[in-house]
Backbone:
């Protein structure tokens, strides 16, 4: 039987905490994080320092395991209520963990390589912190609207939707929306839009590159 | 015709959305060397915000069988929480033995060197899951975070997911029989600590301060 959607698990986690039922909150948090194990593992595999170097292959699995445990520990006091914010927090945990592993490599290799220059070496920030801050401002400005939209599956993807809505090129944006929110594969998108599959590949990648710039843009 | 990398990214996205649990390394290996890092960045962007796939039962079972997932699930059932899983990893990554960690901790917290053996003993208990994490002090967490070079937030939740202590529940005659004994135990626990209670005990058993 399929597990509950992520946004419902997050809501149940907060409900359990509000009732002071910490064991239930921990169990629900574990189910939520389990659903994101592959995301954590994949993010460790894609992690790159500023120079383009990733973690050594023999370290990626260990980093993923530690990041997963740290993500579980995050459930002790997680305040954000949107699943997009939860995912951004996971990214932060993964990056912190990979960064810590990079520090180990530096210690072992005794060389002074600069780590990711976009990263606060002593802090706990993440690559999407600026986007999150801008998103928080957006949320505050739309407080009433957001309250009305509290229910419904759509809320689960609001952060992604907010980012994708800023992609300027209509063609790229449409392909991203069909990919993210309808989970259509390349063939189905090609059929829906009446374009070639090669064209879908191209629009998807270019759209993703634009989205990456939007989400990583420093705060104004 | 678009570059091969466009197709690889799309293949990954489709496999993810379909719940086929794609391995990132497999897809990166298909990319030309010159484009591999760029592709990694694009996959990372997707993964950061992609909806979780609708996993089928077999996929969920496979995820539950992952060592990290098993370890975390076990932590929920044990009084030591995540500490027995997390602390040895962090310590080994920092290339420290338990003794080294005790020595650094004692030094970082400005305690006397004679406190090392006792600190080491407590650290061993913590790694074995034999120490109640709720007793760990804020000062200890600060010290550990500094020595292990991790954010304090990585440590402070490690004990919070621990199984709660057992509760006494009884009714009627059974409750009456045990109540007097429990009162004696409670009085003993509330009594002032003996003379051997020191700053190391305070660190590991004194609780949040």
Residues:
């Amino acid at each position: 039987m399929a597990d509950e959607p992520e946004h419902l698990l997050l809501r149940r986690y907060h409900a359990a905490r509000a009732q002071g039922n910490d064991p239930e909150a921990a169990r629900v948090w574990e189910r939520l994080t389990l659903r994101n194990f592959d995301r954590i593992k994949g993010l460790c595999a894609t992690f790159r320092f500023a120079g383009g170097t990733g973690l050594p292959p023999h370290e990626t699995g260990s980093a993923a395991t530690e990041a997963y445990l740290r993500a579980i520990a995050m459930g002790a006091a997680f305040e954000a209520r949107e699943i997009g914010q939860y995912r951004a927090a996971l990214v932060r945990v993964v990056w912190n963990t990979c960064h810590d592993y990079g520090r180990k490599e530096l210690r072992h290799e005794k060389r002074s390589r600069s780590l990711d220059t976009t990263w606060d070496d002593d802090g706990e920030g993440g690559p999407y912190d600026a986007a999150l801050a801008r998103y928080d401002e957006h949320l505050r400005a739309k407080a009433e609207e957001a309250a009305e939209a509290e229910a419904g599956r759509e809320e689960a993807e609001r952060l992604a939707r907010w980012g994708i809505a800023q992609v300027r090129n209509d063609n790229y944006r449409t392909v991203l929306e069909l990919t993210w929110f309808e989970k259509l594969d390349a063939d189905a998108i090609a059929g829906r839009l009446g374009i070639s599959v090669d064209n879908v590949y191209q629009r998807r990648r270019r759209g993703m590159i634009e989205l990456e710039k939007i989400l990583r843009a420093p705060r104004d | 015709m678009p570059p091969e990398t466009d197709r690889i990214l799309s293949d990954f996205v489709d496999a993810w959305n379909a719940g086929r649990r794609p391995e990132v390394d497999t897809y990166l290996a298909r990319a030309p060397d010159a484009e591999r890092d760029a592709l990694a960045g694009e996959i990372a962007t997707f993964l950061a915000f992609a909806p979780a796939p609708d996993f089928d039962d077999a996929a969920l079972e496979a995820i539950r069988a992952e060592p990290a997932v098993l370890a975390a699930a076990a932590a929920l059932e044990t009084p030591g929480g995540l500490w027995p899983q997390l602390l040895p990893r962090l310590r080994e990554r920092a290339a420290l033995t338990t003794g080294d960690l005790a020595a650094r901790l004692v030094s970082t917290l400005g305690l006397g060197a004679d406190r090392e053996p006792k600190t080491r003993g407590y650290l061993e208990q913590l790694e074995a899951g034999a120490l109640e994490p709720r007793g760990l002090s804020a000062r200890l967490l600060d010290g550990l975070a500094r020595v292990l070079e991790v954010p304090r937030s990585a440590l402070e939740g490690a004990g919070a997911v621990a199984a709660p202590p057992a509760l006494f529940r009884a009714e009627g005659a059974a409750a009456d029989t045990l109540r007097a004994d429990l009162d004696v135990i409670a009085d003993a626990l509330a009594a002032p600590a003996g003379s051997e209670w020191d700053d190391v005990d305070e660190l590991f058993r004194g609780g949040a301060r």
About this structure: The CA atoms of residues 6 and 66 of chain A lie 22 Å apart. Chain A has two domains: 1-127, 128-220. Chain A touches chain B through 79 residues (CB under 8 Å).
